[in-house]
Amino acid sequence: MFNSPDCFAVPDNPSGLVAGDQHWGHATSKDLYYWTNHPIAISPPNNESQVFSGSAVIDTNNTSGFFPNQKNGVVAIYTLNTPTAQVQEIAYSHDGGYTFTRFAGNPVINSTSTQFRDPKVIWHEDHWVMAIAYAQDYTIGIFTSADLKTWTHASNFTRPGLPGEQYECPNLVKIPVHGSAESMYLLLISINPGAPLGGSITQYLPGVFNGTHFVPIDDVTRYTDFAKDNYAGQFFYGIPESEGAVSIAWASNWQYAQDAPTADEGWRSAMSLPRRNFLANITGAGWDLVSLPHDLSPVVGEQLAARNDLLNETLVVDYSSVASNAIYFEAHVSGVGGVSSAATLNFSASSPISGESLSGGYLFGGNNSFFLDRGGVRGFDDAFFTSSFNTTSPLRADGTWTLSGVIDRSLIEVFVDRGARSATATFYATQPLTLFAVSTAGLPKGASVSVRVYALKSTWSEDAETNVVESIVK
């Protein structure tokens, strides 16, 4: 992942629609929604190797010595996958990340292992820090460097939380704490396979980092998403702390990513919405990762519907005229403390042509369960394409609850209770979903329900090469 504020890169196979001949693709954006595709950023040195995941930094102080006359030099750190080992290399760019030169002294970290990959580099006070996965040893290594060229092993963080089959794509990021001027460190570890729902998932651990060692605050296992299609999320480097931590994830699951039925359209996988993230002590476990869409204003279009009084009623919105076939919706509920399990909010998106639908809903009483169900769409049949997901979302003490979400033509993302829980799920309908409905039932007379639905603008241009919102291959 290229982590400059307006650039993005992921492993990309330029010769196919499935993972294989991995290079580093490259795209730029001013708002994280409208992306311009550029030529391959970094290619492997020969036909027997591939450029796997990594990260990049702005070497403002020229610690590397590559940039004697500039403050914005970019250094990429990545895994070179070879037939005999995975080693760590660097490449540098004088033009903001458009073109790179491989360092003559590569590899900067040598290895005899074929399971040592995905370096994530950050700056900590007076030195560079790398978090990297010893994939099948269930270990995250921490290395330090003064110049990005010479690295020293500092510590290992071993077997936290869910081991799965292997660790990938670690992130070590400083993240704000809601309602406080303080911040904490977050270590995120992507696991594949072995997720509770099958395939891939990302877990996160809040903790303390002193520049060489990471210590989690507890042994609770926490996940970034309660559905199946949010993996290997990466945080952008260089975002001011006052703006919070911004991330983008791969919206798929390794169980079926290679088989998703989109090859006829010339793409295979998608990226999630960009998200702003912070920690908040909400549930009994404490220190929840709160994720909400990054500023949607660049893509929010006309308001399709608005109700301030949707109490035990249904709102239906026809969005068949929305060119992007994408909408954003939000619901705000108050005055619902102490209600029975019969009190619900449900929503759906459906096709009047094929009868297909996806749905979701919340029980305000009982165990406060929220569910998301993609089983009603029929464009993809795979044994591992799980239909339904759920989570618990307790009501706030003030009796309020919120829901927001984006429904695109093949992806839904929901943000429950102000982002305290989030889910990302792909779906593949045989006909476009064009009717959105939201309803409430069983709520007391004193409750209040407001709902807004907006069209989203298309981020695709007529020239498909200029946009990569759904064309990046993981």
**Helicity level:** under 10%
Largest sheet: 6 strands, antiparallel
Strand order of the largest sheet: 22-33-24-29-30-31
- What is the CATH domain class of the largest domain? Mainly Beta
What CATH architecture of the largest domain would you give?
5 Propeller
- Mean pLDDT equals 91
General form: globular
Give the helix/strand class.
mainly beta
Number of self-contained structural domains: 2
Unreliable segments of 5+ consecutive residues: 1-5, 462-474
Number of contiguous helices: 0
Radius of gyration, in angstroms, nearest whole number: 22 Å
Strand content: 35-45%
User: How many β-strand runs?
Assistant: 33
Protein name: Glycoside hydrolase family 32 protein
Keywords: Glycosidase, Hydrolase
GO cellular component, one term: fungal-type vacuole
Domain Glycosyl hydrolase family 32 N-terminal: 13-276
List descriptors:
single chain, 474 residues, Tachylectin-2, Chain A, globular, 33 strands, 6-stranded antiparallel β-sheet, 2 domains, Jelly Rolls, mainly beta, disordered N terminus
Write a structural description.
This protein has 474 residues and is mostly beta strands. The chain folds into 2 domains: 7-294, 5 Propeller (Tachylectin-2, Chain A), CATH 2.115.10.20; 300-456, Jelly Rolls. The chain is built from no helices and 33 strands. The strands form 7 sheets. Strands 22-33-24-29-30-31 form a 6-stranded antiparallel beta sheet, with no helix packed on it. A 6-stranded antiparallel beta sheet has the order 23-32-25-26-27-28, with no helix packed on it. Strands 13, 14, 15, 16 and 17 form a 5-stranded antiparallel beta sheet that branches. A hairpin with a 6-residue loop joins strand 25 (344-350) and strand 26 (357-363). The N and C termini lie close together (11 Å). The model is unreliable at 1-5 and 462-474 (pLDDT under 50).
